[in-house]
Every structure is written in C-alpha cells, then in structure tokens.
Amino acid sequence: MDTINVAIQKPIEVSKELEKINFSTLFIDKARKKEVTYDKKHTTELKKKKKKVRYDKEDTQFQVFQKSMRMMLIFGQCLGLNPFLGVTKNDVTKVRFTVFSGRFLYAIFILVSQIIGTCFCIYRFMNNVFSVGALGYFSFYISTASTTFLFLKVGRKWPRLVEEIHNSELNEYIDNKTKWKCNSATIILLTFAFTEHIFATTNRLVAIINCKTNETLIYEEYIRVTFPWLDDANVPIYLPLGILLQFQIIVTTMNWNYSDLFVVCISMYLTGILEKINDKILLASKKTNLTPAYWCSLREAYTRATGLVRHFDEVINGIIFTSFATNLFFICLQLFNVLANGITTRQGREKCPNYVRGPLRGYENAVYLTFSLCFLFGRSLAVSLYAAGVHTASQVPAPALYEVPSCVYCEEIQRFIDQVHGNKVALSGLNFFYVTKELALSVAATVVTYELVLLQFSGE
C-alpha cells in the first residue's frame, strides 16, 4: 500500500514542478514583452522629445528668416551684393557689417567695374550718333551700378534689421513654408536668368561666326561686339582682359536680375507673418467666448508685424524703386525693338557668307528675343504681385473683424478696425509710390503709352 502511495505521489510532485517551470517561463515572457513594449514607448517618446527640441531651437522668426534667405543672400554675395557677415549664422550677434572684410572689398571692385562701364558708355555717347542700342547699354550699366551701391547701404543697415526681427516677439506666427518658397523662387529665377544669358551669348556668337570674313579670332570679335566702346577708346584686346570682361558681364547680368529676386523673397517672408496673424483672427472672429484681452494681444501682434514691414521698407525701398524703374525701361525697350524690327530669323544676316550656321539653324535671334521678352514680363509681374501681397495681407483683418458676434464686440475690436483702415501698410519705392495691385495696372498702362510715343517718334 505504501509503495502504491509513493508511486502516486511522485507523478503529482513532477507535475507540480512542471507547472512551476511553465508559470515562471510564462511570467518571464510577459515581463520581457512588457520590457520590450516599454522600450519601444520610451524610444518613441525620446524621438518626439528630440524632435520637439529641434523644432524649438528653430522656432524663432530670426531662425526662419536666416534659413529662408540664406541661399538668396549667398548668391548675392557672389555678385558683390549683401556685403555683411553672418549669413549662415544662427546667432543675431554674429550678423555684422564691416568695411574690413573680403566681401566689402569685392563689392567695391564690382562697383568700380560697373562705374567704368558706365563712363565708357557716356564716352560713346559723346563721340557717336545717339542710338537706341547705345541707350540700352548705358541704362544697363547705370542701373546695375546703382543696384550695387544701394546694396552697400542695405548691408550697412542689415544687422540692425535682423535685430528688429529678433526682438519682434512674433515667434507664434511662423510660416513653415517660407524657406521652401524662397529657395524655389531663387532656383527658378536664376535658372531663367542663366538661360537668357546663354541664349544671348549664343545669338551673338552665331552672328559673329556667320558674318566673319577676316582673320580676327572669334573671342576678340565677341568682346568687341559685347563691349563696343572698346573700339571707340582704341583699347587693344588681350586674352586676360577678355576673361575679366566676360566675368564682369556675367556678374552684371545676374545683378540686373537679382534685385527682383531680393524683393520677391522679402515680400514672401513678410506676407507669411501677416497671413499667420490673419488665420488666427479669422478663427477668433467665429468664437463667442473671447475676452477683450485676447483681442488686445492680437491687435498688438498685428502692430508689431506692420512695424516690421515698415522697418524693412526703410532699408529696401531704394532697391524696390530701382527694380521697378529698370523693369519699366527695359520692357519698353524690348517691346520697341520687337515692334519696330519684328522677330525674324535672319536679323540682317542673309548676306553673310556662312549664313544659317548654328545650333538652332538661324532661329537663334527669334528664340532669344521671345524668351527674353517673356522672362522680363514674367519677372516684372512676379515682383509686382508678391510685393503687393504685403499690402493685400494687411487689409484682410478688417472684413473678419466686422463679422465678430455682437455679444463679444468691444473697444479693442473697434480700435483694431480703425488701425487696419487708418494705416497704409505696404512696401514702397523710396516713398514715391506704394506697391499695390493697382500699381501693376498703372505700370501696364504706362508701358502701352510709352510704346505708342516711341513708335510715333521712330516713324518720324
């Protein structure tokens, strides 16, 4: 009997031991799963915290402005513009202007070369019959020299301007798309500018190759055609001089386009701030539980934003004036050339010994004139509309404030409405004109009037 009991107890004890082992294994597995789940959650939380910290470091108006303008400003420094330090820095104290820097000396070198080109154009006026082509060369050099000089003044005021951005207390109203917009505008406009320069160079080279009859080297003939005053001044052509002049014409051509790009990017940044404030006003106008203190904070944010627009205008209004004046003149000049002479494939080259040679088989002039005119129109329209967008965005709060429910209407809202209607918030051209959408229509009407007058005088 005892033997039987012992035999029965042994399997029971074995089964209990197995249960203990299974239970401990199950407990360990559950603990491991919990540990893995905790590790995953902890890792995810750490990533979120790191991401949040990274965004917080960039989440200031100064940081956004620096990152948005960086590509555009660096390219400008390659042209002798924006001669200040700290373009790539994220510390406002590192942005400074000094005459003892390579950027400033390079800007002076470019400015002197453009002034020399202007003087040669004046010399040509004094020794030759006046022509539309000579006027175009003179206007090209005087406008680019003026632009370089104005950017020297902008560079001197730039450190103070970024301090105003840093102290604006508008970090709550950041447009995260500003960097993408400015970089896209920079790439697109500069691509078109280089394309136009390539078409112009190709057109000139093809004309030289088609009509070349003497033993003069092609590069010498190209330099003489591109810089016609060298013959007037009896300046001999050497290869180092040709390389220097070619570098100068590329820099000057990009300078001619750069002021428009600069105005567009600044306008995008300012419009982005105003639009973020407008979004908050539009949401608030539909609520019925907001206090006067909340409306006061919105009005003060709008005041700081419009004050920032005025600070920018004080610094860049000369650039805006030069941009609009230059675009107006060259649109009239290009239209006059097209309407007076037409867009032809021959351009008077049908008698040349090598006629119809070139990559476009004689269509180089037609392609260049068409592309140049369309690019000039598009560039001018972009500057007008983006700069006018600042004024348009500043007027958006008024209709939203009128829609505020009467139960929450207060003195702060009335002050806000009076402020929107009473202040002119817009970029200007040396305070001679404000850039609004109405200005674009006025410029178009002016172009038509000037073209009719020019065609009438050319017919006589």
What order do the helices and strands come in, and which of them pair?
Elements: H1 2-58, H2 61-78, H3 102-127, H4 132-166, H5 178-211, H6 218-226, H7 229-232, H8 239-284, H9 292-341, H10 364-395, H11 397-402, H12 411-422, H13 437-459
Describe what you observe in this structure:
There is one protein chain. By secondary structure, the protein is mainly α. The protein has 13 helices and no strands. Helix 2 runs antiparallel to helix 8 (239-284) and helix 8 (239-284) runs antiparallel to helix 9. The longest helix is centred in the first third of the chain and has 57 residues, at 2-58. It is elongated. Plays a role in the sugar gustatory response. It is found in: Cell membrane. Keywords: Cell membrane, Membrane, Receptor, Transducer, Transmembrane, Transmembrane helix. The chain crosses the membrane at residues 104-126, 132-152, 315-336.
